[in-house]
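Summary for the funding panel

The consortium committed to producing paired sequence-structure records for every protein in the target list. Below we show the first two records in order, beginning with the earlier of the two.
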Amino acid sequence: MALFLAHCGACEETGVLQLIPAVQVQPLVLDFGEVPLTVRVQGTVTIRSVGEVMLTIERVHLADDRFFSLIGSPATQLLPSLSDVAQIAATPTELGLQETVLYIETDDPGAPRIAVPVRLTGVPTPPCDDGNACTEDIFDAETNSCLHNFADGTACFPADKCVTEAVCSQGVCLGTTKVCDDQSPCTQDYCRQTDGECVYLVSPLACDDNNPCTADSCGVSGCQHAALLNGEPCDDGDECSRNDACFSGACVGNAASEGSACDDHNSCTIGETCQSGVCSGPSIVEPAAEGQELFTYNLTEWDAGAFLHRREVSLSDNGVFYGLDHLRLPNNEGLSHVVFAMHQCGSEVYQFSYRPPDAHVLVSYVRRAMQLNTDDRIRMVVGVRQRFEDGFQPQTTTYLLDRQGQVMLSGIQTVGGETGRSLLPDGSHIYGLVWPLTDGAPTPESPAMSNLVVVREDNSGHVLWRHERTSGDWAEFLGVAGPRVLFWASNRFGALDFNTGALVWSQETDAITKEMALSTPLNLGVARTSSQLIGVEILSGQQIFTFPEGFRPDYIPRTDPVIAPDGRILVLMERRDSSGSLAVALEWVELDSRGTVLNTKVLDYVFPDWSATRHEDHDDPYPTVADDGVAYVGYGDHFWALDPGGDVRWTLTSTVPNAFTGSVPLLREDGVLLINRQSRKIIGVKTNGGQMSQTGWASFRHDGRRTNFTP
């Protein structure tokens, strides 16, 4: 209401203007909108004294208090310019529009009684079913939100029919894995996950005794090994024997002369000779000092634009290093890819070259991954999204190579872009796809619509479950951690039950990168955004910490985080000047599992001119950590080995500013560290012998074969 002054009739006999009270009320209508039944809401109406004398509030009341109640009344008197509120609560118990009026009576002669309409629309409580049989879904009227409490102990039914006697545990369906064994050495036994039936396959390799001088077969009494005829040629695998032949079921040969040259097929030894019938030579690894470069494996020579990425390196159990090398073709003709396998100290196993679909056209997005299967077969997946003008269609191409590098499968497998994949110990795969919902080039009036589809397939490729949810142009499959399958889509982290595909939880988040370090023992996932690390509880999805707290343009992470076996979170941070434009220092930072800083160490480093290098050289370095806590990380022209606490064990330097680029350093079981240098060389470096523990491996999101899987 406006300020009212008395007109001439209100003047005193002396002609002096008499001041009167005035009132102002906001809002003029109090509308609670749609309110679910039984949910209590509250609102306020502000009463302000806008005259030049005291305002008296004589009465405040509701016309109807069936759904509405006055829970707080204003003061009875207000000095000029002061205000107070009337508080109103409402709890609908019926559907539809409900109305009342709040009356405010004051001594303002111009507005002695003000009526404020109050209304709401009662609506049904929202459905809270999340589709997960292992959560108890409740609508909480007090918070006006759905709660999904873990229904631990409830019987459930996994999509994997080989899991029996299953009950719910922390939101997922867990049970006992069915074991199939017909007690015959002649068969390969397994449980078929689609129906839970046992399958016994007669295998020609089941009775192989690895003896070249026996004929292996399976009879009614089991495996049989008949000796071949004496004199049959064979190979006993001994480089120090000659003219090998079978004799009484054994492969024997004549010993080579003592001291004669031989080849033990181990590139980590030199000058091999036959000594007492054994081919051996001095090791180049054993006498080397820690931090010493042992060997170099040269990648394909290329003029410019070649790179080796973190998702595209892997290491087998027997130490074979696999890489997927990208070679940019001239004249914008796309890419050529080379898969290489390197054994021991730089000796080559095989190379395989191919041109993927994204080599032929320019694309908007690319996701490439290389997965090493348990039998050392390589699965390469290229997920692309075409340019807007080319239709913006996602698609996935898969290549499958055997252990000799021969193509077993190739071609476009899915109209949809694959964004991550994990191999579980039972041989099943879980992977994510960006699935198009619209065709053709997007426009402002008709944008591209996509869903994230997460699929679990058994070891024969049969779909066990499929989860689909809304996503934007792209989404992320973040890996498997314990019984959870982690993803990001439409600004939400989320987790699925790996046995059923049901949603366990999802939480809003502002940003997420493509990777996440996962630790099941710590119940922790840590991701890097452009400016922070984000720590999330895997089981519940609750955010634990951000580091640094708040936006800090002068202090940003320069590597993805890695989680050490002892629980430390390790990351390389860059300090900048106050403007946030000039890098001034590199710090090695160790956090505990709650994001609290344990140690910081400023590294001896001079920043080069990054304008002369590719963005991968300073945006994509990645650390690794051994079971003894020693961490390894490269940045620009330096590579460090760092003890717990940040003290430097040794440093490698290069005359080239972008020497140590994006791929993750890998640690072999013989203590040799493999580093990608300048994107054109793999170098082997002697370490202190620390091993890559299972906990350490779990932080390697790039290696799809080794997942952090501990149900």
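The next record, for a separate protein in the list, is shown here:
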Amino acid sequence: MKSKNPKSNLKTAILRFLANKKPAGYTVSQITRALRLPPKEMERFVSEVISELVTDRKVSRLQGKKFGIPEKEVFAEGILQVTKSGTGYVRLDEATELLIAEKNLRNALHEDRVRVSVFPKKPDSRPEGVITEVLERSRTRFVGVLESGKGFAFMVPDDQRVHRDFYISPKNLGKAKAGDKVIIQMEDWKNPNFNPEGRVIEVLGRAKDLKVQVIAVARGLDVADRFPSSVETEAALFPREITPDDLAGRLDLRSEAVLTIDPEDAKDFDDAVSLKELDNGNVLLGVHIADVSHFVRPGTKLDLEALKRGTSVYLVDRTIPMLPEVLSNNLCSLVPGQDRLTFSAMMEVTPAGTVKSADFHKSVIHSQRRFTYEEVQKSLTTGTGDFAPLLQKLNRIAKVLMRKRFKNGSIDFDSPEAKFRFNEKGAPVEIIKKERLDSHRLIEELMLLANKSVAGFFTGYLKKHRKPALYRVHDRPDLAKLTALQSLAAGLGFHLDVGTEDETGFSLQRLMEEVKGTEAENVISELAVRSMARAAYSPENIGHFGLAFRDYTHFTSPIRRYPDLIVHRLLQAYAIEQKTEPVYQVQYLTAISERCNLSERKATEAERESVKLMQVEYMKSRIGDVFEAIISGVTQFGLYVEINDLLVEGMISVRDLKKDFYNYQENTFSLVGERTGHTYRLGDHIRVECANANPARRTIDFIPA
């Protein structure tokens, strides 16, 4: 070992030793002793050399902590998913998922595309593997809290699925200091024996500042909260008023009674409605949508930035818009008392809710009244107030449409949402369940009808002219997930049939009706949503299972969703201009769909995590308080419990279930005491005490009360 290249000599010695001992596996300590090297001085060096041999695929990492000469390795590729507990999974197909123990993640991170060496499968055990190569990084920027060590600093990631802290050398700190919430750029990370290195590229503020924590949620998911100056400059060039040239060729609806109905705190009003009774007993229902495509033209900086964002993001205390404010809150917003450019779907609807015809026009409206949902609800209840007769008629047709939709098998996943009341410092002081009103359903049904009508036009036009379009699709649920939901529902006293697509849809609909108003409603609704496929954008129309629509798209929110903007451009080309050549090729629409599907997932996660952050922040003031809760999840690690009136979920660790040792029973979704037989089941009621609330980790710990 006194050669000029001790590492090369050691590699040769290790390979020779393992080859002679084949096929047994040996630990680093065993190899060090076998080569008669001093363990204290050499064991770490031997470990480093073995890691290089594993990277070079000359040595295999076996199960446990053993290494050996590879027999005939089986490799697989896929996207790594890491849980908050540090365990990884790589899905190979619908039925096969590789387990990756934390020690075998090596230098791979959550959502990286990786190459995996698959271990020989043992009987009655799930397949496992070790990551041998990172093929593609999902991201290289991370958000977390900067902490200091002796002569160096490190960043602890906010995302618990990122299982390594980042070492930050003094030269890469910039102006950041311990206790700051920072964004770091990951430097090259080849040696998995050491933590990755990072460079601070932005300081968001002090980590304890609640507003900083909220924006960190978005930035951690690559959601930009500021527009590039070039985009703001382009947006600022638009005239502040509608010009006569803008009105050319438009259907003039400015004399019609057009109304907007939106949340109280909304600033971007992208839809308005109207209704006119016809001599034949039908009604002409108008859904008027902000004509964003008039302003945001293909290939402009505005267009490319909107595509990059994909959607507006609604955090718990702010909105991160897809378009700059001059458009989203002004020119494109259908504010009352102002002429606004719109794209109108004019639908003749019978009293039974059948659409006799649907026409689409570039139009101009002048909204006569902006209503909040609460104002409309009061008018529907009392029959008084501005435009009360019109609102009553709109409500009647909406209810007809809803009944017809449910009769056809549409499922109502009415999951409750949390709303917060904040103090002057922006801290949450109250959590309120959002109430779903008839006024919400009124607008929902009219928007669904407009979206369905546009998609129906696309389908008919495609058959005739073979032009590609963009749809909002929802595949039927996975059978395994439905079977699991069936078992869960049965355990809580409810019934679900799993059969054909239609039978399953109607059975899910009945299940949602059965649980409505019961204490199990939140649990069953959440589990049902999890069993569903994810709705997505696609040029391939496979229908929408959840809505029971053969044709469906998104047309009604182009201020906040990029796919709606694409749909407007397609509709103008096909319905108004009658173009014979395709506006977009199928390959481009597929790429747009994939990008927007990813943006939507990130936005949903950011919104959910920001709500969770505020819930945890609120529960900091309730530590020691006792609550009535329901068991919303059961794992081998403990119980997830939800406080119904607060929609707050936390965990009781299995170690806090005193007086017995509890075993997890997967088939009954329960924890059963070995000695007493006491059982904790999904859906059971339980009194709990809030023991801890950690905003940094966004976790709440409960103990049995």
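Regarding this second record: The mean pLDDT is 90. The first strand starts at residue 60 and ends at 61.
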